[in-house]
Amino acid sequence: MKYLYYPGCSLEGTAEEYDISVRAVLESLGAELVELKDWSCCGASAAEAVSSLLSLSLPAVNLAIAETMDGSKDLLVPCSACYLNLKKVEEKTRADPDLRNLLNRILEEKSLRLKGMIRVRHLLDVMARDIGPEPIRQGLKRSLHGFSVAPYYGCQCLRPYAVFDDPEVPRSMAPLIEATGAAVYPWPMGGKCCGASNMNTKTEVAVQLVAEILKAGRNADVIVTVCPMCQMNLEGYQKLVSKAGGRDLSKPVLYLPQLIGLALGLPENMLGLHMNLSPTGEFLLRLKSTPARAVA
Amino acid sequence: METTQAVKTEADIRPRSLLLDAVREKVRPCIQCGTCTASCPNTFAMDLTPRYMWRLVLMGQEEAVFESKTFILCSACYSCTLRCPRGLPLTEAIGDLKQIAARQDIPKHRGSTRFYKSFMESVRRHGRVDEMEFMSIYFMRMKNPMLPLRFSGLGMRLMKKGKISAGIPGFGKGGGPLEPIFKKVEEMEAGK
Fold first, then answer.
1. Which domains does chain A have, with CATH numbers?
2. Residue A109 with chain B: CB contacts under 8 Å
3. Minimum-distance CB partner of A200 among B78, B115, B184
4. How many CB pairs below 8 A link A and B?
5. What is the spatial distance between Cα B51 and Cα B27, in angstroms, rounded to a whole number?
6. Which of A9, A51, A203 sits opposite B185 (nearest CB)?
7. Is residue B76 a part of any domain in this protein?
8. Residue B39 sits in the same domain as residue B61
9. Is A106 in Cβ contact with B75 (below 8 Å)?
10. What residue spans of A49-184 are helical by DSSP H?
């Protein structure tokens, strides 16, 4: 299995541990990643609030670069905002040749051309549908038996394009979590919004959304995410959120590949576990003191 | 600091009512069922429900639409878009409203619109966003000396984890790899 890889800006900065753990886990599960050459920003959630045309042009640049690369036509994207921006241009230009022509007039400035050959894939899509739980079960070095893991999907990998999961009641993470030996924490918050960039501009509003999520997750051992913005909102403001929620709502939050990597026995530095902002110490200690079991 | 001066496009000088017309076209088939309101996670903080705001858009009540904070509170979760029984691109239409507020620099929405503009400014300079620079631009644009304090706690923790670099960011002098794309988009939007 070979994929073109678009890390996106967050994975170079505040979500570096996501990048590190995606690479380590996919390699260990037998998937090869080829990083997109000279990739640039997809526009994040900002371009759409500034210019529609720009918000379509920036992803188009990266799709056009992907078309010039050998090895795969599947572009793997771990960030849900990047994923949606790129997916949107894939879908819109497929349905609307006039739009593709318009974007190609812009891409000409960089001597690029969009033909429509790339399939944009979210990391979770690839992990759930291409890789699946079996290689995790087979590679299991440390069972997470006895742990309860809350899957948090967020919004933009599910909606508006329902590609690999139910956008209302997502469940694609469940088999992957179960393959680690852990139990899936039952909660209704998997596809609820974390507030996204409102956390920066309308903090008091986003904090309420995160408080609801962390309250619902209070009996889970750990929450896992598949998006750098969700991760930042769930783990970066826990003090503020606890204050708003009227009780201690601190909770370990990991990226899904960090959790899978732990089960596969990958060393902690290969998973960037020292970089999380939420209190992961107790969870990791408990995990290490549990006798290693190869069979879940 | 030198800033990248955007050329004035047609949309910057066009009256707001004409800009709103394009949004109105997108939501014209709205049947006012209120599914958007019921689906929105941010209604609790809004002064108008999303359904009511769309009604105002349909009636061309631009003053009331942009006076309200409803559209700016959208966190793009796409729940309304997914569920709208008329299949309307509601989240996209909200994006259009945000663009109008950004282009017209409506004072009460600057906290949000300048956030997005600052982000794009950093992207224009480097091709990728430099998070430290982006926030510095935002603080400068907002001209509010208290604003950085709100972010300093998280900033310190990110720095300690080595996720953002300390010190004053080096502002690139224009000419980033995406500059030709930004320029061309501006030209086309200006109708050249």
1. 2-124 (1.20.1050.140), 132-289 (3.40.50.11810)
2. 180-181, 183-184
3. B115
4. 163
5. 11
6. A51
7. yes
8. yes
9. no
10. 52-67, 80-95, 97-107, 123-125, 134-138, 174-179
If asked whether residues B113 and B167 sit together in one domain, one would say yes
Does residue B8 carry a pLDDT above 90? no
Mean of pLDDT values over A107-115: 98
Which residue of B124, B181, B186, B192 to mutate against A (max A Cβ within 10 Å)? Answer: B181
User: In this structure, are residues B7 and B190 in contact, taking their beta carbons and an 8 Å threshold?
Assistant: yes
**Pick from A207-216, A256-265, B135-144, B164-173: least confident:** B164-173
In a domain, B63, yes or no: yes
B59 inside domain: yes
Which of B50, B69, B104 is the last residue before a domain boundary?
Answer: B104
Q: Distance (Å) from the C-alpha of residue A227 to the closest C-alpha of chain B? A: 13
- pLDDT tens digits for range B174-191: 679 999 999 999 999 998
Instruction: Note whether A193 contacts B45, CB cutoff 8 Å.
Output: no
Residue with tokens 């204050």: A243
ipTM exceeding 0.90? yes
Examine the domain organization and report whether B28 and B79 are in the same domain. Answer: yes
- C-alpha A102 chain-centroid distance: 31
Q: Which residues in chain A have Cβ-Cβ distances shorter than 8 Å to B172?
A: none
Q: Domain range holding B73?
A: 10-104
Q: How many structural domains does chain B have?
A: 2
- Across the interface, whether the CB atoms of A160 and B91 are under 8 A apart is answered yes
Q: How far is CA B86 from the centre of its chain?
A: 25
> Helix, strand, coil shares of chain B as percentages rounded to 5?
60, 0, 40
